[in-house]
Amino acid sequence: MILPINLYFFAFLLLLVLYFAASKAEEEYTYTKGSRKGPENWWRLNPKWKVCGSGKLQSPINLMDNRVKELPQLGELNGDYKPAPAVLKNMDYYIMVQWKGDAGQLHINGTYYKLIQCHWHIPSEHTLNGLKFDLELHALHKNSKGYAAVIGILYTIGSSDPLLSKLFNAIKSIGDKDIDLGVINPGDIKFGSGKYYRYVGSLTSPPCTEGVVWKIMKKAGTVSRKQLSALKGVVHHHRHGFEESARPTQELNGRQVWLYNPMENGKPN
Questions:
Q1: Which pLDDT score, from 0 to 100, does residue 237 have?
Q2: In this model, does residue 21 exceed pLDDT 50?
Q3: Nearest to residue 53, comparing CAs of 64, 44, 63, 66?
Q4: Are 195 and 261 in contact (CB under 8 A)?
């Protein structure tokens, strides 16, 4: 009787493995437009992702200067950041820096949002007056209730980005394992303090949760071709032939986009 019992046991384990493997495969998504698991079909892949298809506050969007309203009362980006231990992760579609300690916070309308992580999308997800950029960084913050605020920075090809310069060797060797980066200063992101767009949107990947406060810097940063190539070359989707990790822009659906324009001599710049 021992052999049949063992066979049944191992057969049961095999079924469990196959079930969870199938479940995981069903939840995977891609950025390949028109594919079964592409952006248009994310909402079909998991019941928890329904808002990816039915939501009215989805991100990213096309930021049109002729449709924004200036609102000086928004004030400058009020961030209080500090160096903290961090780890580099390969998230399959993008590279992420996740802080393990207290890396500081962002202050919005009396609420503090703790900096959690930053990651890069290739090419940009948001567009500016219809123009797509070479790269986009998202710095994700969360408040005590779990609501998110994201600062987005668009990049064009040019001089090297300071943060990516410090991470370059780690990015090149990331593979499938996390890399302990030691202490990383969020200030190296160079958020800036000038003009930015603000609107309410969503996460740009499943589950596409809405209610996210977005702040997109109007002035683009620069990234070198070497740095961009490094980011592309190590993510899994690139090795499998997928070139992009950017969700297409979503409908505005009547939302207002605000522009913070610093005042100079009592007048907007």
A1: 58
A2: no
A3: 44
A4: yes
Write out the two tokens for 10: 């191992």
- Amino acid occupying residue 51: V
Task: Provide the pLDDT for residue 243.
Answer: 66
Residue in 125, 137, 194 with CA at minimum distance from that of residue 164: 137
Give the residue carrying structure tokens 């500016």: 128
In whole angstroms, what separates CA 198 from the centre of its chain?
Answer: 16
Strand partners, 107: 112
Contact (CB, 8 A) for 196 and 222? no
pLDDT over 90 percentage in the chain: 72
The radius of gyration of the chain's CA atoms, rounded to the nearest angstrom, is 21
Partners of 106 in beta bridges: 79, 113
> Tokens 């890396």 identify what position?
103
Angle at 42 between CA 36 and CA 48, to 5 degrees: 135
Instruction: Say if residues 106 and 115 touch (Cβ distance below 8 Å).
Output: yes
- CA 218, CA 199: separation in Å to the nearest integer? 13
SS3 207: coil
- 3-state SS, residue 33: coil
List all residues 6 or more positions away from 2 whose beta carbon is below 8 Å from its beta carbon: none
Phi, psi for residue 80 in degrees, rounded to 5: -125, 90
Residue reference for tokens 């049109």 = 64
pLDDT band at 244 (very low <50, low <70, confident <90, very high): confident
pLDDT interval class at 18 (50, 70, 90): very low
152 in Cβ contact with 215 (< 8 Å): yes
Whether the Cβ atoms of residue 245 and residue 134 lie closer than 8 Å to each other: no
Nearest Cα to Cα of residue 89 among 26, 175, 160, 150: 175
